[in-house]
Specification:
Layout (H helix, E strand, L loop, with lengths): L8 H9 L8 H14 L4 H11 L2 H15 L8
Length: 79
């Protein structure tokens, strides 16, 4: 059974990076990633959370901003 899924453009770009060749289908890319995760004993819940974060443009902007601040030496030290 086939279905259609909706991806944010930034998630699609990230999937494009993992293609072995330009004509590889996204189904093949995702299937390969799932298999690789199984062999690496990746926690499925952790993987889901990572995909959620990568798919959330606001969270990704916040992370990018925090990294820029850190590189500039702007951070808060917790005691």
């Amino acid at each position: 059974m086939e279905t259609t899924i909706k991806l944010n453009s930034n998630v699609k770009e990230k999937l494009d990076y993992f293609k072995v060749h330009s004509r590889e289908s996204y189904n093949d890319v995702i299937s390969r990633m799932i298999e690789e995760c199984k062999t690496m004993n990746v926690d499925e819940e952790s993987l889901r959370e990572t995909i959620e974060v990568l798919g959330d443009p606001e969270t990704m902007r916040d992370i990018a901003e925090a990294l820029r601040d850190f590189e500039k030496g702007k951070f808060v030290e917790l005691k």
